[in-house]
Amino acid sequence: MEDLVYLYRYVDVLLIIFVRILGAIAFLPIIEETKIPRIALVGFSLGISLCVFFKIDVSTSYYDPNLLSYTILIVKETVVGLVMGFVVKIFFQIYPFVGSLLSMQGGLGMSMVMDPTAGTQSTLIGRFYNLGLGAFFVLSGGYHWFIHTLVQSFELIPINQEVFSSNIVMNMINAIGIYFELGLKLAMPIVSIILVIDFAMGILARTVPQMNMFVIGIPLKMLIMFILMVVTIQVISKYNTIIIEHMISTLMNMIQEMRVL
């Protein structure tokens, strides 16, 4: 009974907590691509919000009670949640980036398919790798870490605290830089081998003009690329761990930088 009275007294604070969590969870690629019903997403976010509500001391969350200030606070908390979700989404776009590079070099550049879950076009290779990352994120308990970070963000960034320091933009640029770095490190070995094959076939086409390199070259490149993908599958599993670790550190750095001390 006391909990219900406490909840009724600070229901406005619960709404503020709810919009931050909803903004972060709704932006997650796993949530977007699985097309979870809206009511389930709202219910899940509300459940986490209630846990946060009873964990933190909401009685210290003072703010100007007028409607304009409350609306601004709602918008601010929504943006904080969206920024957190966007940082995670950046790292989930690494494999689609790798897939586009491999597809272009491996002769599968025209194999773009409509992904009904994401609502966009994607390459088959990028989709394959990204599904693996999503499964690894779930099986390794990555969602536990994300929910823990959401809860911890209310301790690092109280709802009545100003946010958005000047270093946020630099941290966002740094996250995008890590995105390109990890993607290129993974794709470049295979792309380099395929480029060497292209160079060798170019020399062969000059020395043996009768050989139709267009008929031989594309299937050969596809075969070699698939063989290399199978050979490097163990590397991919270790690379998933690296991506998750960078995701954790980048998100925590972003939360730290959003604090205006």
Structure description:
It is built from eleven helices and two strands, in the order ααααααββααααα. The chain is elongated. By secondary structure, the protein is an all-alpha fold. The chain has one domain. Pfam families: Bac_export_1. Belongs to the FliR/MopE/SpaR family.
Summary, kept brief:
With 261 residues, this protein is an all-alpha fold. It is built from 11 helices and 2 strands; from the N terminus they run ααααααββααααα.
Summarize the SSE layout with pairings.
Layout (H helix, E strand, L loop, with lengths): L1 H8 L1 H16 L2 H6 L3 H18 L11 H26 L1 H12 L7 E3 L4 E3 L1 H16 L2 H15 L11 H40 L5 H19 L1 H25 L4
Antiparallel strand pairs: 1-2
Radius of gyration: 24 Å
Overall pLDDT confidence: 78
Shape: elongated
Major β-sheet strand ordering: 1-2
Query: Share of helix among residues?
Result: over 70%
The number of strands is 2
Span of the ends, CA to CA: 37 Å
Share of residues in strands: under 5%
Q: Please, how many helices?
A: 11
SSE sequence, one letter per element: HHHHHHEEHHHHH
Domain unit count: 1
Low-pLDDT runs of 5+ residues are none
Largest sheet: 2 strands, antiparallel
Q: Helix- and strand-based class? A: mainly alpha
